[in-house]
Specification:
One of its GO terms (cellular component) is Golgi apparatus. The chain contains 20 helices and 22 strands. It has about 700 residues and is of the alpha/beta class.
Length: about 700
């Protein structure tokens, strides 16, 4: 059964807007009265609409409805919901599986990787945008949060900390509305659909004689969204549509209202009908200037990742002393290190992020336990003694792409190009490997060691990039974004300093990175090609990094020819043998294991032996699955603290004509009312145009 369209939902009663209720220590005693007033005043409208729209086998459900209406004062309360019945949602589907990535035409794929020729799709895909948002001042949100907290004993180590009650978490400066407006103003012609992912709650029990199935829930929506303009396809503003999706629709195992952003992000791969590539947003993120798809994704260059190279996350597992977001990032980097080799990895910028639906599915296929564990935690703080921290899905997603690209290059060369078809590795393979890296085999002291200097590459020359984007139909080219590293030019984290290393021809030769490789350290003593691969790829990562640098140099200024097997090399059919990954053989991929030690990376195990396969064609599809560039887009991360500091920040941003991506965090410690007024004035000055779906109060 498909997910219910929001057109099938019924709006609960709407009341005129008002200021949010204050958050204070008295909320526990006041919330029940508040909810009773709020819900009872709207419940008659709710059930009239329900009865008109749904057929029940027993009309007696409505016969005993007896709800007291409260005085006119209740009209000062304001809220709206989209009721829906969870029993109409589909049952949890099968375990996650892989999704194909076919971005480039097969007609130009070989020339793209062997010679560096331009290759791109004839269509410029539109990108969906997905916002996660909750209204923290919603009385049902507060009620559900406090009820969930009460399920933990005071001495339970898994009990949420006081952080969940911080006032700043409930303040609303109308960020979401202006975040959407900013994207409409600066990216409209490239937008597919807008989707808003938000909370849902149980229907409150407000009267003793009111009975309603527990399968009904109330879905939260923004107070400014005009329910009267809702259509079967959602809300519309010109060609852009907006749909609302609720947590109960996407969680594999839903245990009630969830207040943990890390848990919610583990389920992003389940959002129905979203584009293959979409932009993930929070309500505190904005576009300040016009942008093009080149800041996020193009078929010519793949996914665009934005990272802070100077700020790195260690590979060790986080401890109880690890604070805040570093816990989730630390746990995720530990998982990546277990799978791809231990190393520091850079911080993923807290700005608009491009996400691949296929990569989310692959992540959940490899780490189902970690995703299920994290999704079950309703509060971010619930990580008891000795338990792993929640994962950071967006951190995992970005670095997984980079690591899969590195892994694919090394596997293509060691196992696909050099190793025997039966996975054997001998003296001939060892010598060939060394000589292909540029080393001399016959040396007087038998010490085979050499220095490798990075090569000049033309992949990301600005004029070349602009030409490729123009030919592929991306109007506006790079815009304010620049590309600083490409997966076509090796591995982004090799010898990573405070910035990603450029290798365009204008870089002085003495600034190109260098490394040293030793034959005995990297290649000696192995009898299987897959063991050589695992050693240099994961166990001694410096070997693998330097091998990639050497082979990129041997490939010339464009392409990856030195990594690729001969066009005629094939893996033959083995009668009576089936594929290693049943049902996944049509999607090229390397082992789906949590630890590299547990993977069988031999040709037969990876590619299957149920049919004859061309190694080169298979590897080309593997490589194009994980293409990426590291991008730089002028961005600003700001915190609001007090009235004067906020005024200074807003003035500085208004005078800065370079910032394109903006994040504004609410860290206000004093003068909230003044800060709110200043910030709202700033937002209205930059994004004043109302969307069609907004209410006109």
């Amino acid at each position: 059964m498909p997910y219910p369209n929001t057109a099938d939902y019924i709006p609960l009663a709407l009341f005129p807007p008002s200021q949010k209720a204050p958050i204070s220590s008295s909320i526990c005693s006041r919330r029940r009265v508040f909810l009773a007033v709020l819900f009872s005043a709207s419940v008659l409208t709710f059930f009239v609409l329900l009865r008109q729209s749904f057929q029940y086998s027993d009309d007696d459900d409505f016969d005993d409805l007896d709800v007291d209406l409260f005085p006119e004062a209740t009209s000062s309360l304001h809220t709206s919901y989209l009721p829906f019945e969870t029993s109409l949602l589909p049952a949890p589907g099968p375990a996650p599986t892989l999704k194909p990535v076919v971005d480039l035409p097969s007609s130009c794929l070989d020339a793209y990787y062997s010679q560096g020729d331009l290759c791109y799709s004839s269509q410029v895909p539109k990108l969906d945008f997905l916002w996660t948002w909750v209204n923290g001042s919603d009385p049902l949100e507060l009620d559900a949060k406090l009820d969930a907290q009460d399920t933990y004993a005071d001495d339970d180590p898994w009990r949420p900390t006081g952080a969940v009650s911080e006032v700043r978490l409930y303040r609303n400066h109308d960020e979401l509305r202006h975040s959407l407006r900013s994207v409409l103003a600066n990216f409209r012609k490239y937008i597919g659909h807008f989707r808003l992912l938000t909370s849902d709650f149980p229907v409150p029990a407000t009267t003793p004689n009111l009975t309603l199935s527990a399968s009904w829930r109330l879905g939260q929506i923004p107070q400014w969204l005009d329910l009267g303009k809702h259509t079967h396809s959602g809300w519309k503003d010109g060609a852009v549509s907006l749909d609302v999706v609720h947590h109960a629709q996407i969680f594999s195992s839903y245990e009630g209202t969830n207040f943990n952003s890390l848990a919610i992000e583990t389920q992003l791969g389940h959002v129905p009908d979203i584009s293959d590539y979409f932009v993930y947003m929070n309500d505190d993120l904005y576009m300040m200037r016009p942008m093009t798809p080149a800041s996020f994704y193009t078929s010519a260059y793949g996914i665009v990742l934005h990272m802070e190279a100077w700020l790195k996350v260690p590979p060790s597992r986080p401890t109880h002393e690890t604070m805040g977001e570093w816990r989730g990032m630390g746990e995720s980097n530990y998982m990546l290190s277990e799978r791809f080799g231990a190393r520091e990895r850079p911080y993923v910028m807290h700005q608009a992020k491009i996400v691949s639906s296929a990569m989310l599915a692959e992540l959940e296929t490899i780490w189902p336990g970690a995703f299920a564990r994290s999704s079950s935690h309703r509060f971010r703080e619930t990580s008891g003694p000795g338990a792993p921290s929640d994962i950071n899905t967006l951190f995992l997603h970005a670095h997984f792409i980079v690591e899969r690209a590195r892994e694919a290059l090394l596997w293509a060369w060691v196992v696909g190009r050099l190793g025997a078809l039966d996975d054997s590795w001998g003296a001939w393979e060892g010598r060939t490997a060394w000589e292909e890296l540029g080393g001399e085999w016959e040396v007087w002291d038998d010490e085979r060691e050499m220095d490798v200097r990075g090569a000049w590459r033309s992949t990301l020359e600005r004029k070349r990039v602009e030409r490729a984007l123009a030919r592929s139909g991306v109007k506006g080219g790079l815009g304010s974004t620049s590309y600083v590293f490409s997966s076509m030019d090796g591995y982004a984290y090799a010898d990573l300093g405070d910035r990603f290393q450029s290798s365009t021809p204008d870089v002085p030769e003495d600034e190109l990175p260098t490394c040293r490789i030793n034959y005995d350290q990297c290649f000696a003593g192995f009898e299987r090609a897959s063991d050589v691969f695992k050693h240099i790829a994961f166990k001694d990562v410096e070997c693998g990094d330097c091998v990639i640098s050497a082979l990129v140099r041997e490939s010339g200024d464009l392409g990856n020819a030195a990594f690729l097997p001969h066009p005629a090399r094939k893996l033959p059919l083995v009668p009576g043998r089936g594929p290693s990954y049943e049902g996944l053989d049509d999607i090229p991929h390397l082992p789906l294991v949590e630890r590299w030690q547990d993977g069988d990376f031999s040709l037969g195990a990876v590619m299957g032996t149920a049919s004859e396969r061309n190694l080169r064609a298979w590897i080309l599809q593997l490589l194009q699955r994980y293409r990426y560039v590291m991008g730089y887009t002028p961005a600003s991360f700001e915190r609001l603290e007090d009235p004067q500091q906020t005024a200074d920040v807003m003035e500085r941003l208004s005078e800065n004509h370079e910032v394109v991506l903006l994040c504004v965090n609410d860290d206000v410690t004093e003068g909230d009312a003044q800060v709110a007024a200043t910030f709202r004035t700033f937002q209205d000055a930059h994004w004043s145009k109302r969307a069609t779906w907004e209410r006109h109060d």
